[in-house]
Design brief:
alpha+beta; two-stranded antiparallel sheet; 20 helices; globular; Anoctamin
């Protein structure tokens, strides 16, 4: 029987700040009092039942520091109850992994220890509770009549859209961060990344990204080793390239299937493989009237699926098409620049004119990166912002794929210029890698160091009555940029995978540059997430989500492109001088055979190792047995109650 929240005293004298809430400077006092009260109120009254206090308290009637910054924490009991609410999976005394429940807490390892929940998990629980603070009887935010509320509306979302709430972010643990930084990137050495430590500090989403980055880098090494002799010795025989392309196609299938197994092993150990996601509560930005979920029976906002489809196809889709049209227009300008550079080289025949041949590709690569970033920025303020998660990812992937690869497809299958294709592919790959390293890590790190010096001077000029280290830490972190998630990082790997796999026949050296880039990427991304941005909230996840499908789709497209490129080679065309139809039929046949082989391999290689499958099956069996026992117990109680009733009569 589930225990009532009101039965627990979730107050705790020892306050450990976990999350920071920053309000606007001109926020009214009644709004602050109302918000802090809602955060501290018991669950039965619609509150979050958390602990909250301002960063700097009043001292002798004088207020020092920013009184609009609040620290949020929770007692150990409250966090355990929250762990049950969000469905965290923890290790039991028998070494199995089970969904945590407070009533069966004694069966879990070290449940009474404050280290039972990682700091990332505790911050995730607090974030979940804050985001699910929803209006009940309130019609407006106190002090702001124009900020309307209705039953079911997310309070935090409304405060943010009204400009009252500036940000919510989790605090760093400075000591743990120092240890992690040292073992992660503080020393240059060839070793595996500390994925378990990354997971404990940043959560599963970040750890899975770095795990995939590491795995993908090791998987690229065979391609790089095979590609070097092809490039150095300038082998042009089609039969050698057929072998290289065939290996590429099989390689792309195997590494993606093996990654599923590696991912399952990691996420089972972390507990997220067992987490139930299908009945999670609506996101805080979800709009809709309050209704009853027909599956869970919970009261939550609902929204018409018809309206959602109308917004996707009549608003968001035209926006994406407009962006694609502009991308194609820029591509045509690039080809005009290529023609100009070629004419200039033919007229001058100098070293400078040879360098000018690379200039259009370099400019185009820079423009592509700019367009990709502008599109992602515009989508957050455009009709695309009406969508969420996978839908936004799919639209963005379509745009980025066409923006980066449309010119290469045009050169290969319309212009039939393999020399220009190799030059453009090499220039686009190398230029994009250099730009990403500079824009995503080096430049933000330099700017952040300059900004930190200014903030420290301002902090030390304020005399405060609280722990100066905490005051300084909060003020430094709240001025940092916000980490927007792993989308850009996965996108960079996705495009890199495309450069390596789509046109491997033309430029086998692409894998070498990819390996070199990814080695530096591990260090630069680690530096970025530890030093440049605010600490992101943990986000439990069991896999890399839509990116697995994206990489698999790219591998299928690579089969078609590589077969077509081999079919276009002069050596293959020489075998069929009389009938091009026979050539096309043979290329299509080979392509279908390779695709069939890919799907057979994907079917043969199981997504989860055998031992993980057995553990999951055993857990499901035990859950069914426990459910049967509960039903029997309830039925016996009903029968005994009925018997008592008859005797009383």
């Amino acid at each position: 029987m589930k225990e009532s929240w009101s039965a627990f005293d979730t107050f705790e004298h020892h306050f450990r700040p976990l999350v920071v809430i920053e309000l606007a400077k001109d926020t009214k006092e009644e709004t602050k009092e109302w918000l802090t009260q809602r955060i501290m109120d018991k669950k039965k009254n619609g509150g979050a039942q958390l602990l909250v206090k301002p960063l700097v308290k009043e001292d002798g009637g004088k207020t020092d520091g920013n009184q609009n910054v609040y620290l949020v924490g929770a007692s150990h009991i409250r966090l355990l109850l929250g762990a049950e609410t969000v469905g965290l999976v923890k290790e039991c005394n028998d070494n199995s992994m089970r969904t945590f429940t407070y009533s069966s807490r004694n069966t879990f390892k070290d449940f009474d220890s404050h280290n039972f929940l990682t700091m990332a998990e505790s911050q995730y629980i607090i974030k979940h509770e804050l985001e699910n603070l929803r209006a009940k009887d309130e019609r407006m935010i106190p002090g702001y009549p124009q900020a309307k509320l209705y039953p079911g509306k997310s309070i935090m979302r409304r405060l943010m859209t009204s400009g009252i709430l500036l940000q919510i972010f989790p605090l760093h643990d400075t000591e743990e961060l120092k240890k992690l930084r040292y073992t992660w990137y503080g020393q240059v050495k060839i070793s595996y990344q500390p994925l378990d430590q990354i997971r404990c500090y940043f959560g599963e989403m970040i750890a899975l990204y770095f795990g995939f980055l590491e795995y993908f880098t090791f998987a690229l090494v065979p391609m790089a080793l095979i590609g070097i002799p092809y490039y150095v010795f300038a082998w042009e025989d089609y039969d050698k390239y057929v072998m290289f392309a065939s290996f590429n196609l099989l390689w792309s299938t195997v590494i993606l299937e093996v990654w599923k197994r590696c991912c399952a092993i990691m996420t089972y150990r972390w507990g997220t493989l067992l987490m139930k996601q299908q009945f999670e509560e609506p996101r805080p930005g979800f709009h809709g009237v309050l209704g009853i979920n027909p599956v869970t029976g919970k009261e939550e906002p609902v929204y018409s699926s018809i309206k959602r489809q109308i917004r996707i196809y009549l608003v968001s889709l035209p926006f994406v098409c407009l962006c694609l049209y502009f991308s194609l227009y820029v591509m045509m300008i690039y080809f005009e620049l290529e023609t100009w550079a070629l004419d200039f080289h033919e007229e001058n025949e100098s070293y400078f004119s040879k360098l000018m041949l690379f200039l259009p590709s370099i400019i185009y690569a820079i423009v592509i990166e700019m367009m990709n970033r502008v599109y992602r920025y515009a989508s957050t303020f455009s009709p695309l912002s009406l969508l969420f998660n996978n839908t936004i990812y799919i639209f963005s992937l379509q745009f980025n794929f066409l923006n980066c690869f449309a010119s290469l497809f045009y050169i290969a299958f319309v212009l039939f210029d393999m020399k220009l294709l190799r030059q453009s592919l090499a220039t686009l790959l190398i230029t994009s890698q250099i730009l990403n390293q500079f824009v995503e890590a080096l430049l933000p790190y330099w700017l952040q160091k300059r900004h930190n010096k200014k903030v420290k001077k301002r902090v030390y000029s304020i005399k405060v009555d609280t722990d100066l280290s905490l005051f300084e830490q909060v003020n430094l972190e709240k001025e940092m940029g916000t980490y927007l998630g792993t989308f850009d990082d996965y996108l960079e790997l996705f495009l890199q995978f495309g450069y390596v796999s789509l046109f491997s026949c033309v430029y086998p050296l692409a894998a070498v540059f990819a390996v070199l880039n990814n080695i530096t990427e591990m260090y630069s991304d680690a530096l970025k997430i530890c030093r440049v941005f605010k600490r992101p909230f943990s986000q439990p996840t069991a896999n890399i989500g839509v990116w697995q499908l994206a990489f698999e789709t790219m591998s299928i497209i690579s089969v078609v492109t590589n077969c077509a490129l081999i079919g276009l080679s002069p050596q293959v065309n020489a075998l069929f001088p009389d009938s091009k139809t026979d050539l096309i039929l043979i290329v299509v046949l080979v392509e279908h055979i390779l695709l069939a082989l890919k799907f057979v391999m994907a079917f043969v290689i199981p997504d989860k190792p055998r031992d993980i499958q057995i553990k999951l099956a055993r857990l499901e069996f035990e859950s069914l047995e426990a459910l049967k026992q509960q039903i029997k117990f309830a039925y016996s109680e009903i029968r005994e109650g009925g018997g008592v009733g008859v005797a009383a009569q």
